[in-house]
Amino acid sequence: MSKASALTSRERLQKALHHQSTDRVCVDFGATHVTGICASTLSKLRKAILGDKDYRIKIIEPFQMLGEIDSKLMEALGIDVVGVLPPKTMFGFANTDWKPFTLFDGTRVLVPGKFNLTSDGSGGWLIYPEGDTSASPSGHMPKDGFYFDAIPRQEPIEEDKLDPADNLEEFSLLSESDIQPLFEQAEQADKNNKGAILSAPGTGLGDIALVPAMWRKRTKGIRNVEEWYISTVTRRDYVYQVFERQCEIALQNLRLLMEKLGDRVQAVFTTGTDFGMQTGPFISVKTYRDLYKPFHKTINDFIHQRSKWKIFIHSCGSIYELIPDFIEAGFDILNPVQCSAAGMEPQRLKSEFGRDLVLWGGGVDTQQTLPFGSAGEVYDQTSQRISIFNNPPGFVFNTIHNIQANIPVENVLAMFGAIRDSTR
Question: Among 406, 403, 402, 222, which Cα is nearest to 314's?
Answer without folding.
Answer: 402
